[in-house]
């Protein structure tokens, strides 16, 4: 693998506008989520039926960003990664690749690497914007617990997107990979109602709680363990399964 | 509504206007799918950022971009 292949993949992210969509999702939710948390009391303050128990603080602001990012933006990231890594044997470009390349590593690894790098960079920028808006709206706050939760979530989003991308590469279909991942996500949500297994579920890592005490390394490792294993297996399958030639009708 | 800090508001406005402007510029130069251009333009404007993200990921016919 040389630098040219990686540059081609980078240009595919830029020219297809996937890069802009992903960056906009992270950055705009980084702003909007904190505004929503801060000014919710003003928006519902005139209602006689709703009474706020306390004034929102920096934890509520960052928790709102984490909730939105862990659901909506993670969905956007996984869809874009799947689109970038799926090669269909019915598209002209897909036929070109699949009829000339025999190594799944040469074909899929650059796509997966660039997708992971782009999503990690976008998540970092989104987190930086959220931290800035949190300071601008709520004043100073302890940085360590905020960074810990945002770091766990960023790792989880990258792994989540890579799992879907590897599935898409193996199946040759972004839609099918996204549907499978969405189904697994819903299953994890249902399982998260069981307190004993909740710390081990990927949904916990995708939407980590903001705690003033911060996340310990053991808690973070527990929450991303299942994602690491699932993503590793999906990547191994995608990068070792031989590429079949284009199917022709008998 | 209580006082909104300028330091928090300015980045949001700049980024939102820039994103909608980019989507409209891209819309003017690209072919679209599923909906007419004017409908995508309205969706990009009334739902920031979801509308623009949906246009860029689903509505844009990326294989036939011009220019």
UniProtKB/TrEMBL annotation, chain A:
Keywords assigned: Membrane, Transmembrane, Transmembrane helix
Annotated transmembrane regions: 20-40, 65-87, 108-132, 144-167, 174-194, 224-246
Residues making up the signal peptide according to the UniProt record: none
Keyword Disulfide bond: no
The keyword Membrane is annotated on this UniProt entry: yes
Entry protein name: ABC transporter permease
From TrEMBL, chain B:
Keyword Transmembrane: yes
UniProt keyword list: Membrane, Transmembrane, Transmembrane helix
Originating organism: Nocardia tengchongensis
Transmembrane segments: 6-27, 39-58
The protein's name in its UniProt record: PLDc N-terminal domain-containing protein
